[in-house]
Amino acid sequence: MSKEAFDRCNQILQHIMEDTSVPRNIRRAAEESRDLLAKDDDEPTIRASTVISILDEISNDPNIPIHARTLIWNVLSELESIRTD
After folding, report:
1. Whose CB among 4, 29, 77, 79 lies 3.0–4.6 Å from 58's, allowing a Cys bridge?
2. pLDDT score at 40
């Protein structure tokens, strides 16, 4: 279950990273999140929790475009489901 969810999250994060209308700090956080999700040495719930805290913080950034904020919320909801499984 978590593998498919991480794959979906990685696709969304990749999309954010490639979007030049998104501020650089947001793209950097998306890249850091994607890298954390790819690490197999931690429990999936720990990886999900770590990425949730990173993305939750940047989702409140006033400079984030609304489309990127929506994508981040999608990733957050996907990761929340992993924490509760």
Report:
1. 29
2. 84
